[in-house]
Write a structure and sequence with these properties.
The protein has a single domain, classed as lambda repressor-like DNA-binding domains (434 Repressor (Amino-terminal Domain)), CATH 1.10.260.40. The relative contact order is 0.14. The two termini are 31 Å apart. The protein is built from seven helices and no strands. The chain has helices spanning 6-23, 28-35, 39-47, 54-64, 68-72, 83-98, 102-120. The mean pLDDT is 84. The chain is globular, with a radius of gyration of 16 Å. It has 121 residues and is mainly α.
C-alpha cells in the first residue's frame, strides 16, 4: 500500500463526497444544512482544501446516506500510476460503490471485462 500524505487523502475523500452529493442531486447548501456548516465549507471539504473532522464526517455520511468505509476505501494505488489515472480510478470506484443493485454491478463488471479483452486484441 502506498503511503499517502494527508493532503492527498483529503482530496480523495473530498472528491468522493462531491460525487455522492451530485449523485443524490443535492446542493452544497443542502449538505451544509445537514452537516451544520456553511456551503463554502462544504466546497473546501470537497476540494480537499480543508480536513473533515470526525464529527462532520459522521454527519456527512448520514446526510449522504453512505457508509463511512465507502468514503475511506481504496487508498492503495499502483506505484507509477499517473495522478490523472489515480483520479480516474478513485472516481470510478466511488461511483461503482454507489450502485446498490448487485445485478447492475455484475453487468458493469462483465462489460469492463469485454472492453479489456477487446483492447488486448
Amino acid at each position: 500500500m502506498t503511503n499517502y500524505q494527508s493532503e492527498t487523502a483529503d482530496k480523495i475523500v473530498g472528491s468522493k463526497v462531491k460525487l455522492r452529493r451530485k449523485f443524490l442531486k443535492m446542493t452544497q447548501k443542502q449538505l451544509a444544512g445537514i452537516v451544520g456548516v456553511t456551503a463554502q465549507q462544504i466546497q473546501k471539504y470537497e476540494s480537499g482544501a480543508n480536513r473533515i473532522t470526525m464529527d462532520v464526517f459522521v454527519k456527512m455520511c448520514n446526510g449522504l446516506k453512505i457508509r463511512p468505509e465507502q468514503l475511506l476505501a481504496n487508498f492503495s494505488f499502483c506505484e507509477g500510476t499517473s495522478e490523472h489515472e489515480k483520479d480516474l480510478e478513485s472516481k470510478l470506484l466511488a461511483i461503482f460503490r454507489m450502485i446498490d443493485n448487485p445485478i447492475v454491478k455484475a453487468r458493469i463488471l462483465d462489460l469492463v471485462k469485454v472492453l479489456v479483452s477487446k483492447e488486448d486484441n
